[in-house]
Write a structure and sequence with these properties.
The protein has 256 residues and is of the alpha/beta class. It is built from eleven helices and seven strands. It has one domain: Glycoside hydrolase/deacetylase (TIM Barrel, Alpha-Beta Barrel), CATH 3.20.20.370. Strands 1, 2, 3, 4, 5, 6 and 7 form a seven-stranded parallel sheet that branches. The chain is globular. 37% of the residues are buried. Bound molecules: zinc ion (ZN). The site of zinc ion (ZN) has 5 residues, from loops.
Length: 256
């Protein structure tokens, strides 16, 4: 079976539902987190239309997720953002202001506020999440060394406000679930050994582990919707392109 298709994605979500996990958005989790939960996060780096398709699948399955959109050009698709919000999902800002402003903190915070306000016209944004900008030397999270997102009405940024000693982290960065080597910034500090004990390559590996009750009670799953496609050509294009990017990112990572 091909991985990273919508059929596989649906199976993944259904398995967690069948195994008693509830799905919470980022802002619900901050207010009160359930005993057994999946925090489903989508970083919409490209192709908002894929995010829309995934949002519809989730709505049909009766769950909610958090969608983080970027502000740059075609990724900021107002119609799609509104439609996804209307389905009951959370919308947040996938910010990369510091790298867009070349490390100029004063310019970056103005840039951030201006763009956050653009989002707030569409949705009452309460959470934000950094874009990794793998090819930039700037870490977008560093903006919060100088400023405080809480001053902008933001209650959470997962990299700071989720307790990863408790929440097991899974991300499809690198188009695989064990892509630590291909990820420059999308990493968290897990409780000792957790990421070594539980390593998964394919989505089917995760599904099987969930079925066998091998996964912790609290999990965050990050996906990049552009990666998930049933149509063969977009799927194959993403596969080839991601392999190229992995080589570049590995090189950037080694160089640091
Ligand atoms: Zn991103």
């Amino acid at each position: 079976m091909r991985d990273f298709t919508l059929i596989t994605y649906k199976k993944l979500v259904q398995t967690f539902i069948a195994n008693g996990y509830s799905f919470q958005t980022q802002q619900e989790y901050i207010k009160k987190n359930n005993a057994r939960l999946v925090l489903l996060r989508h970083d919409v780096d490209l192709k908002p239309e894929n995010a829309y398709t995934i949002a519809k699948i989730e709505k049909k399955l009766g769950i909610q997720a958090s969608y983080y959109f970027r502000i740059v050009d075609e990724r900021f698709d107002e119609t799609i953002i509104k439609q996804i919000a209307e389905m009951g999902h959370e919308i947040g800002y996938h910010y990369d202001d510091l790298s867009l402003c070349n490390g100029n903190y004063d310019a970056a915070i103005k840039h951030f506020e201006h763009h956050l306000n653009k989002f707030k016209k569409l949705y009452p944004v309460k959470t934000i999440c950094m874009h990794g900008s793998p090819l930039s030397k700037w870490d977008n999270r560093d903006l919060w060394k100088k400023y405080d997102y809480k001053d902008f009405g933001i209650i959470a940024e997962p990299y700071f406000d989720v307790d990863f000693n408790e929440v097991f982290y899974l991300t499809d960065t690198g188009r695989r679930w064990d892509g630590d080597n291909f990820s420059v910034r999308d990493k968290v500090n897990q409780k000792d050994g957790l990421e070594k004990e539980l390593k998964f390559r394919s989505t089917m590996d995760i599904i099987n582990a969930a079925k066998s009750e091998l996964l912790p009670d609290k999990i965050m799953i990050t996906t990049h919707p552009q990666r998930w496609d049933d149509r063969f050509m977009p799927w194959a294009k993403e596969l080839v392109w991601q392999n190229v990017k992995n080589v570049i990112k590995k090189w950037v990572y080694v160089k640091r």
